[in-house]
From TrEMBL:
<dbReference type="InterPro" id="IPR036259">
    <property type="entry name" value="MFS_trans_sf"/>
</dbReference>
<feature type="transmembrane region" description="Helical">
    <location>
        <begin position="71"/>
        <end position="89"/>
    </location>
</feature>
<feature type="transmembrane region" description="Helical">
    <location>
        <begin position="196"/>
        <end position="215"/>
    </location>
</feature>
<protein>
    <submittedName>
        <fullName>MFS transporter</fullName>
    </submittedName>
</protein>
<feature type="transmembrane region" description="Helical">
    <location>
        <begin position="12"/>
        <end position="30"/>
    </location>
</feature>
<feature type="transmembrane region" description="Helical">
    <location>
        <begin position="157"/>
        <end position="175"/>
    </location>
</feature>
<feature type="transmembrane region" description="Helical">
    <location>
        <begin position="320"/>
        <end position="343"/>
    </location>
</feature>
<feature type="transmembrane region" description="Helical">
    <location>
        <begin position="349"/>
        <end position="367"/>
    </location>
</feature>
<dbReference type="InterPro" id="IPR051788">
    <property type="entry name" value="MFS_Transporter"/>
</dbReference>
<feature type="transmembrane region" description="Helical">
    <location>
        <begin position="95"/>
        <end position="113"/>
    </location>
</feature>
<dbReference type="GO" id="GO:0016020">
    <property type="term" value="C:membrane"/>
</dbReference>
<feature type="transmembrane region" description="Helical">
    <location>
        <begin position="264"/>
        <end position="282"/>
    </location>
</feature>
<dbReference type="InterPro" id="IPR011701">
    <property type="entry name" value="MFS"/>
</dbReference>
<feature type="transmembrane region" description="Helical">
    <location>
        <begin position="235"/>
        <end position="252"/>
    </location>
</feature>
<keyword id="KW-0472">Membrane</keyword>
<feature type="transmembrane region" description="Helical">
    <location>
        <begin position="134"/>
        <end position="151"/>
    </location>
</feature>
<feature type="transmembrane region" description="Helical">
    <location>
        <begin position="42"/>
        <end position="64"/>
    </location>
</feature>
Length: 376
């Protein structure tokens, strides 16, 4: 059962990554089809994050009450059903509603699969979380690249979405037999305020997710301002970050088994901080790219360790704790880029990235909090 559950968990992470990233290549098509101004598009895109944020805190209680299998099956089915609607929406209101429902479904799936990952890791008694999150990263790359390839070969956005939805549904169907029917909890309220050590873990997640969101939204702008670096090549910054993060996650479980949570969290935070400072201070674009790769490598195993810590802490049931820290972390993704923009406008983008480096040093210091890292 343990092996089956591990395989099912990996498939669920992979399917969620594919479905989530499939939307990214469709954004320009939606903008053109609905004739949206950038400001209007930004407001509509925010609906996806709002849907996720509203759904995540309640998902922990739902998984405790109904089990991961029912919640993952229901939310995964909704994700697959709503995905084609993103390409078929004929008005801004329809697109906003579809994105809200898509975000809520993706957010529910995200929390439920992490609750399952925590339980499977507990049962196996060995680190597995980095590998699970690595499958999400691979799914994200596969979804975005696959949809882009389909669109480039003349496939309509709607047909591309249907293809991705069918693939994700097939993966979830294959994973269903290994999904956990129960997680050992029941009777929890749909929303419980995080408390105790969960707040500390959530704040560290907030910092890491904020850094990830900033690299996604702002790394290209930093590179575009480098001498001799073409704007068309600016996306290489996030590519370097993503490749390094995926690589780090697939080796993360073995590293955590050998070195322990404390050392991996400490070294990861320092490595990510060094990457941000390198990106800020480097005189050449190639060194900036290396800096973003260091950020990805350093951050790769921090969130998996924090999710494991959330499942182990005694202040809240594991399912509620995972839901809480996921919601807090995703707040960082939503608010981080805006905060970076404010600092960049008031001072400079370099100063904003340096601030993220300092935040990663705070995360590194969190390695010494026993509630976060546990035994070394």
């Amino acid at each position: 059962m343990h092996v089956t559950s591990s395989r099912s968990t990996r498939l669920a992470f992979f399917a969620n990554g594919i479905a989530m990233s499939a939307w990214a290549p469709l954004v320009p098509y939606a903008k053109t089809r609905l004739q949206l101004e950038p400001a209007h598009l930004g407001m509509i895109l925010l609906c996806l994050g709002i849907g996720s944020m509203l759904a995540m805190p309640a998902t922990g209680a739902l998984t405790a009450r109904f089990g991961c299998r029912k919640v993952m099956t229901a939310s995964g089915s909704l994700v697959c059903a709503i995905l084609p609607m993103l390409a078929l929406a004929s008005s801004p209101l329809q697109l906003a509603l579809a994105l809200f429902l898509f975000g809520a479904s993706i957010g529910t799936m995200d929390v439920a699969m992490n609750v399952q990952a925590v339980e499977v890791e507990k049962h196996r008694g060995i680190p597995l979380m980095s590998g699970f999150h690595g499958m999400y990263s691979v799914g994200g790359f596969a979804g975005a690249a696959g949809v882009t390839l389909l669109l480039a070969n003349g496939v309509t956005p709607a047909a591309a979405c249907i293809a991705v939805a069918m693939l994700a549904a097939s993966l979830l169907l294959a994973a269903r037999s290994g999904m956990l029917a129960a997680t050992g909890g029941n009777g929890h309220a749909l929303f419980v305020m995080p408390r105790g050590r969960v707040i500390v873990i959530g704040l560290l997640c907030f910092a890491v997710f904020m850094a990830e969101g900033a690299v996604l939204d702002w790394s290209a702008l930093l590179l575009a301002g480098m001498p001799g670096f073409a704007t068309s090549e600016a996306g290489l910054g996030y590519a370097a970050f993503a490749i390094a993060m995926t690589t780090g996650r697939f080796g993360g479980d073995r590293i955590v088994r050998r070195w322990g949570n404390v050392r991996v969290l400490l070294c990861g935070g320092i490595c990510a901080a060094a990457g941000f400072f390198t990106a800020v201070l480097a005189p050449h674009a190639a060194v900036v790219l290396a800096g973003f790769a260091l950020v990805g490598l350093g951050a790769s195993n921090i969130v998996p360790i924090l999710f494991t810590a959330a499942g182990r802490q005694p202040d809240m049931p594991a399912s509620l704790a995972v839901g809480a820290i996921t919601a807090i972390g995703y707040t960082g993704i939503l608010t981080g880029p805006a905060l970076i923009g404010f600092i960049a406008h008031a001072a400079s983008l370099q100063l904003a990235f340096a601030g993220l480096g300092c935040a990663m040093l705070v995360v590194a210091a969190g390695a010494r909090i026993r509630a976060v890292a546990g035994p070394a």
